[in-house]
Amino acid sequence: MSAAAKRPTATLAVGGVEIALSNPDKLLWPKEGITKLLYVQKLAALSPYLLRHCANRYLTTIRYPDGITGKSFYQKSCPQPRPDYVHTMANEGIDYVHLNSLAALMWLGNRASLEFHISFEQTDNPDYPSEWVLDLDPFRDEEPRIMEAASIVGELLESLHIKSIPKTSGATGVQIIVPLNRQLTFEQLRAAGQFIGEYLSKAHPRLFTVERFVKNRGDLIYVDYLQHYRGKSIAAPYTPRAREGAPVSTPLTWDEVRRGCTPKQFHLLNIEQRLLEKGDLLAGSLPPQNVGTIISFINKRP
């Protein structure tokens, strides 16, 4: 019998199909003691939320075959061979996994897909997004001012009668998400983002910047309005991140932001309890917002 045949496996029964889980005892987050088996169990608990936000989006995963301390690679094309229960969506010559079932999620988890990133455009109407996103990207791995910065952005939007939801990226940043009724284009929203970013940089020059080149930003927090565009992606709500502590990209309340919570507080070992207590803060918690006033003001400028 070959060495490969002797490797331990487990069998997952999911939605009428059986998935062989290879190396279930392999440590994916060594310091946290998260094995592959525990990881797919946590993915199953996250699946109602993760699948909701990955629906009708082009999916990119980041795979870590030997855990977060090993090598990694991005994967857009669906891994092969593909079982019948995993569906794909084609876009610009790439067959993306259509993450629309628990079985597909478990299959990706078995392949050590530790991060799930989704396209900003949706497959049914790619030119008109369902949200507007401002990405606050700090220079430092641990930025103590990130929640202060997020709070300032939220208050500015509120002053414009625009409600928003903050979300940790799961890494170092925070994303401010504004739900829309899909009547504005990416181009219009990019102009609105530039307007907001430039205003913040002038009003708070020691905190914000819209400088595109990292080497010129110093220790300022970058207001990335360019990222929100077709062909680009965002860490999906509730995706784990391949970082020490096993953080999870988590929607927040503005009270939590004002109290100075940190992205590291929300991780694979406590996210289930949080969801039981608060539910999905992004699931219809706000009606579509009117960003048209910003667009109108921009269009009237000489």
UniProtKB/TrEMBL annotation:
Entry-linked Gene3D superfamilies: DNA primase, PRIM domain
Domain DNA ligase D polymerase: 36-281
InterPro entries xref list: LigD_pol_dom, NHEJ_LigD
Pfam families xrefs: LigD_Prim-Pol
Source organism, top-level taxon: Bacteria
Protein name, entry field: DNA polymerase domain-containing protein
